[in-house]
Structure formats: C-alpha cells, structure tokens
Amino acid sequence: NACGRYHFFHSNLVYGYDDEKKIIYILGHDTKKRYTTTEVTYENLRLAFEKQERYVNYISIDYPYSPYKLNIDKAKEIINDYIISGERTRGFGFSIYDQILNEDMQTLLDDIRISHFLYEHKCILSMFVRFLYSRKFIKHENYIELSKMFDTIENKALILRNLILKNSMSTKKNICKIQSILEELKINEKKGLNILISALNNQ
Q1: Distance from chain centroid for Cα 12
Q2: What does each C-alpha distance from 111 to 66, 165, 166 come to in angstroms?
C-alpha cells in the first residue's frame, strides 16, 4: 500500500474563489478517496506552495471569447475517435474496459478512484446529451431514446461504484457481478454513442 509511504502529485481543479472569505474552491479527492469539492484558505494554499519539495505544475484556462460555440463536426470526430481508438490503442477509449476486464480487475477493486471516474464520465455523457438537445443539435425523438439510454448507463455505473465500495468493506466478494456490470456498460455505452453520432448526422 503506497498510502502514507510515497509522495505523488495529485491533480485538483480550482473552479472558484471568494476574496471576502479568502478561500478557493477545488475539486479533487479527499482523505477518504471521495471525489468531491473542498474549500482551501489562501493561507493554506500559500503554505502548500512554500513547503512543496519539488515543483508544482499548474494549467490555467481563460477563454478569450464568449459565448462558447460548439463545433458539432469536431464533437462527432472526438466521439468517433473515442469509439474506434479503443479497438487499437491501449489505455484510451473502449480499450479501458477490456484492459480492466482482462488484466486490471484487481486494480479496479483496490483503487476506488477508478470506479468514481467511470461514474463521473457517465454523468458527463448524460449531461452532454441534454446539452445537445437544449441547443437543438438532436431531434426530440432521438433525445427521448438517448436520454433513457444514457440515464440507464449512468445508473449502472453508480451501481458498479457502490458494489466496489461494498466489496472493499466486506469479506464476501461479488467479483462476477462487478464484471457483468462492467461488460454491460461497455456494450451499452458503445451502442449509445453510435446512436448519438447517427442522431447528430441526421439533425
């Protein structure tokens, strides 16, 4: 177990600040490995920078234009690349599913962050579908089908995360159920994204 023994860099998203309270708002993992929001005082942030042993990498994004306009052709290209690249590239796209199922199942069980990331990814996919519909990039009839599909995918990912949490605290393991849900997620997500691409092509 590396916890408490080794130092690693951890990425956090700074998404806001309050000058009156002198705090910043960050998104990252807490001491219980939960992906959540945290408040950090300006003073503690300053001390963290001063006491760091090596260096700190940071990325700042400040868009010079507004409002943001979605390039739908680029969006379709990224979705398609996510689907296809998984068939030929390890560690990206749908290859993640096969990698976990065939090689890294124990890593999935040991590191709860992975199931959190999977769940957050499915939540974002559901939000993306709603966003596309709100901007009239997909038709109503397509949205009805897609929203139900991605809501189901999101719910399955939540069940998977909870099963893995339960598995980590119980002597009775349920590995077969976890594998089965992961297989379902892989199949349903690929089907859903292909339907989404077709809907975007027929807008």
Answers
A1: 14
A2: 39, 10, 13
pTM for this predicted structure: 0.66
How many whole angstroms separate alpha carbon 37 and alpha carbon 139?
35
Question: Which pair of tokens denotes residue 28?
Answer: 């990252």
Looking from the CA of 142 toward its CB, the CA atoms found within 13 Å total: 21
Report pLDDT digits (tens) over 131-172.
Answer: 899 889 999 999 999 999 999 999 999 999 999 988 888 777
CA angle 75-76-78, nearest 5°?
65
> What is the rounded CA–CA span in Å between residue 83 and residue 144?
22
Is 14 within 8 Å of 26 (Cβ atoms)?
yes
Are the C-beta atoms of residues 95 and 86 closer than 8 Å to each other? yes
Whether the CB-CB separation of 29 and 18 falls below 8 Å is answered with no
Bridge partners (DSSP) listed for residue 28:
36
| Residue 48, both tokens | 């963290």
Residue owning tokens 């599909």: 149
Prior bond of 67 cis (ω within 30°): yes
3-class DSSP assignment, residue 141: helix
